[in-house]
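sanity check this:
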Amino acid sequence: MMSTNIEDKRGFKRYTCHSACEINIDSEVCSGFVVDYSDGLGVITEKSPLIKNGTRAIVRILESGEEIEVQVAHLLEMGNEIKIGFKRVGSLKGNLKAFKLPDLLIGLQRGTNTGILEIVSGSIVKRVYIKNGDMIYASSSYEEDHLGEMLLKEGKITIEQFNQASHLLLTTGQKLGKILVDMSCLTPRELYRSVQCQVQEIILSLFTHEESSFEFRDGSLPGKDLITLRISAADIIYLGIKRIKSFVYLKQMCPSPDDILIMSQNPMNAFQSLSLSEDDKKILSLIDGNSVLKETLKRSPSDDFEALKTICAFLNIGIIKEKKQGEQSALLSAEDVLHEGLDGTPEEYLDKVAELNLLCDAADYYYFLGIDKEASDEEIQKAYYKISHQFHADRHFEFPKNDIKGKLIRINTYASEAHNFLSDPDKRKRYDKTLLQEDPAIIESEKKGGPDGISIPEIIDENLEGGADVVPTGSDGEIPEESQTRYELGVAYMEMGLVEEAITEFRLSAQDPAKRVICIKEIAAHYTGEGDYEQAIQEFRQLIEDVPADDKELLDVKYELAHIHVKNKNYEDSLRLYQEIQSCDREFNDIAGKIEEVTTLLSGQKV
């Protein structure tokens, strides 16, 4: 059996630790020793009847004084002692000196978390808004990070314009973005791009915060999600570390000059979304699993300091690692990682994703990986890497208008599961026995190509030609914008106070039936907030005419329209809508209570 050398698949990196601790359980305190930590803690202590699976405790790390609320996830007996695997209860928090920012960002992305990462350094507070693991927005209390200051430093506005806009901001209370657009300093599109740059700059600035405290609060994002940034954790880490100017700080992250570096064999690490410069691609190609660091630096096309930053970025991203004593040569090479894994047009790729996602329910492991039942260990490994490369979860960044992240994660999970079973002789033997017991009709169906005649090797290996640069154009030759982009611009403009521009974008996006309901809701919400109930009602009435009677969203649209009627004191119209909803779904929200509430209001109005 070949050594696959697949690394720990935890979302958050596991750190070694050597610190005494106190474990407080129901006011009883026992001593222990922390040996590792991540989004949980590994602690060794003496056996105690108080410690069992599910037990909650407070662990105080004596060296740092940090107290962490935890719950026992698993136990391992070690003679008179036990090793406890604690998982954290509540928010993930700590200090960037111990829990490195790159590991934090990658962990949150892989965990598909939604919430706010808050980083505090003295009086400065910076927040990164994360949706389904992806960084979408950031804010900062530091004055130099504010939009006006950044535009001024970049030469996009003059000092005179900055001062005038700042004065109008104080006197009118309008948002700076709207003021700058009204002053013709920026177009709405230029403002949108500037906010994207501002968000990215705030996140990149965090890489200079060596000892800041952090806390990630899981949960829904407050208010509207202002979608301004789409960038992978790997790209942010790469750009952030490349900006470091302190050699002392950089040296702390570097291995010894005599250490050998090797490509990661974990496809989750190896195939992350990463946009490299040509010089840095050459540096990555020098990582061969045989050369020591100082030799790699000598052969680099960049000077030593720049090359060292690049290598540190690769190490922090996890794309490379230090080679352990006796570790075999890597099956995955830099060439494999740098090879573009996406074939064909975007449309064809999305079709492949949909097909593979369906096959997670219908295909056995061999069929899914595109190998036969006599495949060797190396063939299994290569097939696993091939799927992992082409369908890595980070691919969703290349398709911002398509919600495929969940499907990609599912494909990778199933591929990993297939690899796990088939690369272990005992598991493979048991799995093969279960296949022999399957319904012959199912097996025959798979021989013919599975559901709808789909063949896994065709999906993975199909050599698609052309079309990648073919984009549909309008009658005037311009490239039409997708409805999702229009919608996101509308959300962004509304947040910036550019109401007219926002409504224009929403109406353009609403031409797509799939976006019509959400866009009209945004427009109506604006009018409702302004107290223009009649206009909001008009928007919803038109929407109701456009929504098919069997559409699930129709009841929700009627419900919101009824609520606006109440605000406008049109109680009879509101009651009629609520009753229509109740006749279709008696359990819809709090419909019975709404009918009772409006009936009371109507009675009072008549009196």
About this structure: The longest strand covers residues 67-78. The chain has five domains: 15-89, 95-231, 235-338, 346-461, 483-606. The radius of gyration is 28 Å.
